[in-house]
Amino acid sequence: MAKKVILDTDPAIGYALKDVDDALALLHLIAHPQEIDLLGVTTVFGNASGKKTYGKALEILEAIDRGDIPVYKGASLPWRRGEGTEASTFLTETIDSLPGEVTLLAIGPLTNIATALLKDIGFIEKLERLVILGGIMPESKRVRLMNPFDLNFFSDPPSAHIVMSSEGDKTLIPVTLCHKVVFTARELSRLEDMDNRLSRYLVPSIEPWFKLNLKIPFLPWKGGFVPWDVIATSVVVIPEAFSDLEMMHLDVKPLGLARGRVFPDISRQVPPTQVPTDVDSEAVLKSLLDGLGSFD
Predict the structure, then answer these.
(1) Cross-strand partners of 104
(2) Which of 133, 177, 181, 249 could form a disulfide with 281 if both were Cys (CB 3.0 to 4.6 A apart)?
(3) Largest Cα–Cα distance in the chain?
(4) Of 24-33, 69-78, 247-256, which gets the smallest average pLDDT?
(5) Quick one: CA dihedral 281, 19, 30, 5, positive or negative?
(6) Nearest-5° angle of CA 100, CA 271, CA 169?
(7) Looking at residue 163, which CATH number applies to its domain?
């Protein structure tokens, strides 16, 4: 039976110097209808303004004739946390009606999720699972230097703190794990060769993003770009691609120089979060490209 999923996202594909991974993640889910029943999409500010991310979600769905999938506009700014939106209402009402059945994928700033929690303290506990993309694990000095912050947690650290310190089944896909998956010239060439309506929509935005990544020095990955959000959607599409799962007590610094940083809660007062520490890069990229190739 297909897993019931809601995607909380901040797509900005096509805007100058903006990542393309949210669009790829949304398409990755839709391309696997036997595994995924996408109940709806909620949008949040992040890669672009709240207005732009909402519009982009609609645009992506229109590109594949899937306007039947509902899109709900969420928080436009981090300090709007706690204010009701279309997104927060959809989240709380849907989860209330399907307790224990829905997996929520949060691949943008966590403002919408924190807002739902502020409305209902047991919100995450009513989910089957919450999958979060974000956070830099406290590993080596080199990693810390290469990654001063990750956009999702840095954009709204208090919301990340609220979510990470809450009860419920949570899985964190940290930024440092995502570095193992790189979309290279091989994947770009395969996408170009599809030459269908979807590839003609994607390639003009993916190509410049790919070339920009090649020009940036000192990145911890080489040869392309990291499709961050696709690693998160892979947790539900191909869970077998993840291994070495650990339960960790993790929190987020909400303020100061360490703003948005993940750190271990030595006291273990913060509820644990599941963290995979290895991922099969080839399996993730194959699942994505096979999925993109399935569209007419």
Answers:
(1) 6, 130
(2) 181
(3) 54
(4) 247-256
(5) positive
(6) 20
(7) 3.90.245.10
